[in-house]
Amino acid sequence: MRYNEAITWLYCFEKYGIKLGLERIYYICEKLGNPQNNYKTVHVGGTNGKGSVCKIISSILNSAGYTVGVYTSPHIQRFSERFVIDNDEISEIDIVLLVEKVKPIVEEMIKNNNIPTFFEITTAMALEYFFDKKVDYAVIEVGLGGRFDATNIVNPLVSVITNVTLEHQDRLGKTVEEISFEKAGIIKENTHVITAAENTALDVIKKKAYEKNASLTVVDKISWEKTGGNLDWQKFTVHGKLKDYFVKTYLSGIFQGENLALSLMCIESLQMKGVYITDENIKEGVENTTNPGRMEILGSEPIILIDGAHNIAGMQMLKNTIKKDFFYAKLILVIGILSDKNVKEMVEIISPVADKIIVTKSSNIRASDPKMLKEFFKPKTVTVKNHVSEAVKYAKKIAKKQDIIVITGSLFTVGEARDALVSNLQKC
After folding, report:
1. Which residue among 31, 124, 241, 251 is the one 20 to 30 A from 427 at the CA level?
2. pLDDT by position in tens, the chain (length 428)
3. Neighbours of 15 (CB within 10 A)
4. DSSP assignment, residue 111?
5. d(CA 268, CA 240)
6. DSSP, res 15
7. Do 62 and 285 touch, CB atoms closer than 8 A?
8. For residues 111 and 141, what is the distance between their CA atoms, to the nearest angstrom?
9. Looking only at Cα atoms, what is the longest distance across the chain?
10. What does DSSP say about strands 88-89 and 83-85: parallel, antiparallel, or unpaired?
11. Can you tell me the distance from the alpha carbon of 163 to that of 170, in angstroms, rounded to the nearest whole number?
C-alpha cells in the first residue's frame, strides 16, 4: 500500500461522522493486543487549552530524557501532526504500516455492520504506534467530551481536565453541568485528577473524583501570575503544591498561566509517583514548548496573529489577549467558523474589536457559508472571500505596518491560513 492510498482509505471514514461509545475502539485494540496497556499515560480533557497542556507536559518529560508520544486532534496542516514522538511527526512509512495493521480488523467490523469512525481508527493507530516505538509515556488528548471518547480506554497515571464551558451542546448536553459530567468521565479509580474548572463544573468533577476515590488538585486564579514579557515571550510564577516555579514561555496569551499551572501540577503528581524530573527539566521543557496555530505570531509590520479559537470561551480568550498584549492601529479580522458552532455568540465577542472584517470558508465540509457568516456581523461592512488563501492575501494587501491581522474561527481556517503564510515565508 502507498501513502496516498492509506490516507484516502482513512478519510473514507469521515462520512460516518462522530459516534460516541467505547465498544468499537475496545474491539480494535483487543485485536491489536491492547497496546495502550504497555506504557504509562497522561490523559488530558477539557474545553480549551488541552493541546497546550499536552505539549507542555510532553516537552518537560522529553527534557527529562524520556521517550514521549503525543496524540492530539485535529491537525492544523498535516495528518502526521496527530502522532508525535519526541517532537518528531510520524513518517509516511509508519502511517502505511499502521493502516495495514488496522485495515483487516476494520474490514471485519464493516462486514458485521459495526463500522468504526475516522477518529476511532486513528486513535487505535496512535495507541499501537506508541507501543511499536516503545515510548515511556504517552500524553493523550481527548477528542470530544470524555466519557465516551475513543481515547477513554487508557488507564492514566494522571488525568487533567483543563476547564469546562459550553461546547458541542448537540452531543454533550445543554448545560455546563451536563458537559462537565461527560468530561469527568475520564476520571479513573484511585488516580489523581487536576482541573481548572470552576463553579458548578468543579462541583461535578469533585463529585466524580469522590466516587472514583481519586485525589483532586484544583488550579485557580491564585495558582499562577504573570511577572513579565513582551510580544514574543512571557514569564510566569506558578505556585505548585511542592514549590514555586519561575518559568519563561514563548507561547502567547496570559491564559497560558493557567495551562502552565495545570501542566506543572501534573508534573508534580508524576514526581510524587516516582518519576524523576528536575527543576531544570521543567524550566527547559516549558521554554522549548511550541504549539502551532494556537495564539501564534507569524509576522510583524503588520503583526499576523493566528489562533484556532473555535468556541465561545476560546474567542473570549483571544479577544482578551488582543486587548491586553498587543498594540496596533487597526485590527483586520479574517474569520471562518464551522456551521455547528455557536456562530452568533462567537461573532458577538470578536466583532467589537475588529476594524475591518473578512469572512471566509475553509475546505472542511462543516464550514459556514461566508455569505451567511457575513450576516452575523451586520451592520458592519464585511468583505467576503470564498477561500482562506484569498482572504489572507487580501488582508495583507489592505493592512498597514502598524496594524494587526487576526486569523481565527476554527482550526481548519487557521491551518489553511498557516499553509499560505508559511509557504510565502519559505519563498522569501
Report:
1. 251
2. 999 999 999 999 988 878 889 999 999 999 999 999 999 999 999 999 999 999 999 999 999 999 999 999 989 999 999 999 999 999 999 999 999 999 999 999 999 999 999 999 999 999 999 999 999 999 999 998 899 999 999 999 999 999 998 776 666 778 999 999 999 999 999 999 999 999 999 999 999 999 999 999 999 999 999 999 988 899 999 999 999 999 999 998 899 999 999 999 999 999 999 999 999 999 999 999 999 998 999 988 999 999 999 899 899 999 999 998 899 999 999 999 999 888 999 999 999 999 999 999 999 888 999 999 999 999 999 999 999 999 999 999 999 999 999 999 999 999 999 999 986 544 43
3. 10
4. H
5. 8
6. G
7. yes
8. 30
9. 61
10. antiparallel
11. 19
Using left for φ > 0, alpha for ψ between -120 and 50, and beta otherwise, residue 168 falls in left
- Rounded CA-CA distance 130/138 in Å is 7
The number of residues making up the chain comes to 428
Supply 171's cell numbers.
452531543
What is the model's pTM?
0.92
β-bridge partners, 42: 139, 158
> Domains in the chain and their CATH numbers?
3-288 (3.40.1190.10), 296-427 (3.90.190.20)
Residues 6+ apart with CB under 8 A from 154: 36, 41, 43, 127, 138, 140
Sign of CA dihedral 379, 383, 386, 387: negative
- Map grid coordinates 496497556 to a residue: 37
Contacts of 203 (CB under 8 A, 6+ apart): 177
Rounded Cα distance between 411 and 317, Å, is: 15
Residue whose C-alpha cell reads 496527530 in the numeric block? 82
Quick one: DSSP state of residue 351?
G
Of 272, 287, 211, the residue nearest 241 (C-alpha): 272
Report the C-alpha gap between 50 and 36 in whole angstroms: 20
Q: Measured between alpha carbons, how far is residue 45 from residues 52, 140, 237, 296 in Å?
A: 11, 9, 24, 22
| Cα angle 390-392-396, degrees, rounded to a multiple of 5 | 115
Q: What pairs with residue 186 in β-bridges?
A: none
Nearest to 313 by CA among 167, 175, 161: 167
Q: What is the number of other CB atoms lying within 10 angstroms of the CB of residue 112? A: 8
H helices within 82-197, ranges in order? Answer: 92-111, 118-132, 169-172, 176-183
User: How many Å separate Cα 247 from the centre of its chain?
Assistant: 22
What end-to-end distance do the CA atoms of the chain give, in Å? 36
